[in-house]
Design goal:
Elements lengths: L3 E8 L3 H10 L1 H4 L15 E4 L6 E5 L5 E11 L3 E6 L10 E10 L2 E9 L16 H28 L1
Antiparallel strand pairs: 1-7, 2-3, 3-4, 4-5, 5-6, 6-7
């Protein structure tokens, strides 16, 4: 079994709207992490290209683009899976993120599983020399902050 982070929370929107907000508005809720910067120039402005084979990429202030990963599963309102790599990863190194959108009454349960952290060596800059459990805890904190901001954004829209 691969080493992974799992985070879930409920948001005040139906699964399709939640999926759309997650994929179309990521730059408005994404919370950069100093420990897990996508590039040495920061995280930039994230965006998804819709559909299987589309990219998750970031555009830096300089206008330069960096491809974070490709989408392998695109099921609006249900599931999204994409590769995740930081600029410091080699071409062979990547982790994978799976996002599920499940209806729970009038809300949606969003769950994120960010896996394959064990493929990134402890000495790698993305791990900061942390042992595996510390790396996973910090990655969970990073996702928790972003999902918290995502929930706040959807809640603010639901109130207006």
């Amino acid at each position: 079994m691969t080493s992974k982070v799992y985070i879930a929370l409920r948001v005040p929107a139906d699964p399709l709207r939640t999926f759309e907000a997650f994929t179309q508005e990521i730059s408005s809720w994404w919370q950069p992490s100093r420990l897990f910067q996508i590039t040495t120039g920061g995280d930039g402005r994230l965006a998804f290209e819709p559909g299987v084979g589309g990219r998750l990429f970031t555009t830096l202030d300089s206008g330069e683009e960096f491809e974070i990963g490709r989408i392998s599963i695109w099921e609006p309102g249900k599931r999204l899976v994409f590769a995740w790599r930081q600029a410091s990863f080699t071409l062979e190194q990547a982790t994978e993120v799976e996002v599920c959108f499940e209806p729970v009454g009038a809300e949606t349960r969003v769950s994120i599983e960010h896996r394959a952290w064990d493929t990134i060596p402890r000495r790698h800059a993305a791990r900061h020399g942390f042992p595996e459990q510390a790396t996973l805890q910090r990655a969970a904190d990073w996702w928790r902050a972003s999902l918290g901001a995502f929930k706040q954004r959807l809640a603010a829209r639901a109130e207006s």
